[in-house]
Amino acid sequence: MAFVITSPCIDEKAADCVEVCPVDAIHDAGETFLIDPNTCIDCGACEPVCPVAAIFQDDFVPDTEQKWIQINKDFYNK
Ligand code: SF4
C-alpha cells in the first residue's frame, strides 16, 4: 500500500506534504506533486496537512480519482 496524490493538487501544490514526509517520497511532477509508492512507508503524515485534501491511502481513493493511483506509479516507473 501507499498514499496517493490526486487531482485537487493540480495548480495548488502547497507542498506541506513534502515537508512532513520522513522518507522523501513526494516529488514535484509538474502540475502536481506525486508519491513514490516504492518509497512511501504508509505513515500517513502527509494526508492531514494537505490543505485541499488531495492525499488518500490507495485503498481509500474516491471512485472519481482512481486513475491517480496509476499516475503516481507511472511517474516513478519511467
Ligand atoms: S504516507 Fe508518509 S511516507 Fe508516504 S508519502 Fe505520506 S508522509 Fe511520505
CATH structural architecture: 2-Layer Sandwich
Give the integer mean of the pLDDT values: 97
Alpha-carbon Rg, integer: 11 Å
How large is the share of residues in beta strands? 15-25%
Strand order of the largest sheet: 1-4
Ends distance: 20 Å
Shape descriptor: globular
Query: What proportion of the residues is helical, as a percent range?
Result: 10-25%
Give unreliable regions as ranges: none
- Oligomeric assembly: single chain
Q: Quick one: how many beta strands?
A: 4
Q: How many separate helices?
A: 3
Please write the CATH class name: Alpha Beta
The CATH topology is: Alpha-Beta Plaits
Number of domains: 1
Textual characterization of the structure:
The longest helix has 10 residues, at 67-76. A two-stranded antiparallel sheet has the order 1-4. The chain has a two-stranded antiparallel ribbon with strand order 2-3. It has a single domain, classed as Alpha-Beta Plaits (2-Layer Sandwich). Strand 2 and strand 3 form a beta hairpin. Helix content is 24%, strand content 15%. By secondary structure, the chain is α+β, with helices and mostly antiparallel strands. The mean pLDDT is 97.
